[in-house]
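In this supplementary section we document a worked example of the pipeline. Step one takes a protein sequence of length 139 as its only input; no multiple sequence alignment statistics are reported here. Step two produces a three-dimensional model, which step three serialises into structure tokens for compact storage. The input and output of this example are shown verbatim.
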Amino acid sequence: MFNNLTLAIFIASALLLAPLTVQAEEKTDAPVQRITQMLYPSVLVDVGRGQGSGTIIYSGWRDDDEAWTMVLTNHHVVKSAIQILSEFDPKKGEEVKREHRRPVKIRFWSYNQFSSAIGTSGRTAHIVAWDRHRDLALL
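The serialised model returned by step three reads:
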């Protein structure tokens, strides 16, 4: 009876502790991977009157060897850069609404030791699309 109980405890403890040792090994790489996934795609969107955050959703090369990066942000962050004005269209002979979009500044963070921000580098971005009701904008 004592031998069966000892054997059962040994097997149960081995089964319970085995996943913990695997998780402990994964924890050394997991924070670095999480920091890389969360911080590096984050950008600062500056529209002059205010700032907000954005997330890089795509970055790659176009056919003409130009870099192409797309940033997803909220409409409320860039709404001051979007104006819808009524203008007279001489061809139609009536007032029409036209949209004017100002470029916005994007700041990419530079990191040291994974999570210590050491500065930013800026780029000019254009508002490609926006949806006020969903509070989304694509730069």
